[in-house]
UniProtKB/TrEMBL annotation:
<dbReference type="InterPro" id="IPR029063">
    <property type="entry name" value="SAM-dependent_MTases_sf"/>
</dbReference>
<dbReference type="GO" id="GO:0032259">
    <property type="term" value="P:methylation"/>
</dbReference>
<keyword id="KW-0808">Transferase</keyword>
<protein>
    <submittedName>
        <fullName>Methyltransferase</fullName>
    </submittedName>
</protein>
<dbReference type="GO" id="GO:0008168">
    <property type="term" value="F:methyltransferase activity"/>
</dbReference>
<dbReference type="Pfam" id="PF13489">
    <property type="entry name" value="Methyltransf_23"/>
</dbReference>
<keyword id="KW-0489">Methyltransferase</keyword>
Amino acid sequence: MNCKLCGSNKHRKRSGSVRDNKDLDIYECCNCGLVYLSESYQISDTFYENSKMHSSFDFEKWRKQTFEDDSRRFESLKNTITNKKLLDFGSGNGGFLKLAKNVCTKVCGVELEKAVKEYYEKDKIELFSNLNECNKKFDIITSFHVIEHIKEPIEILEKLKSMLNDKGRLIIEVPNANDALLTIYESEAFSHFTYWSCHLYLYTQYTLSLLAKKAGLKVEFIKHIQRYPLSNHLYWLSKNAPGGHEKWGNFLDSKELTNAYESQLATLNATDTIIASFTKEN
Ligand SMILES: [Zn+2]
């Protein structure tokens, strides 16, 4: 299996396992560093259409779960998106769009999951069930934790690019393949927890910029951000389990420490998340 991004046929096996499919191996391209699964079979669209991936579809609970991420994204992008026409690709429960709606001239979502429809109607947010249904152009297209699910990421980025106005921006957030828990601390427990058959590719700053260039996009910036605080990492290392921020966060994660830890991980390219802004080449 050749690397999707650079074509190299040399890969090494990463340690760890795919939590929901033990038959799969995790590969890392020796040339560019793209992380991919040994068999990237296409998860059918119907899986996502009817997945109700989110806890027997308690919508309010799902919105609560994503509120922190939705707010973080909104606050960091507020200035960029004000008075702009915005599309969120893979818009999930619409939590980000609900916030963006307050400052954008227009917001739309694209979401395969059918069960969200009535909630978008309630919030008066236009929704499309796939990209081809939406033949409009936008100033800003966002996509948070979606691209890693996509089997043909270059094609999707090209498609999104074609939907941007001339000075438009594409803003992509994905998990970082070089998460400190894997690359620095080498947490074995985490390496059997984090990989998931739905994440067909995991990107780094370098491979995400390579992907953008292949799709004819220009990298404006790629930033490292850390979603999970120090307490979560210490808990992994001590107890080999997730959720440490809920148990230890209240006495460990001061604002100063959290910010300093994020900055430090960012200098090592080892945060858990990367966010990129791309513009059209020209
Ligand atoms: Zn490669």
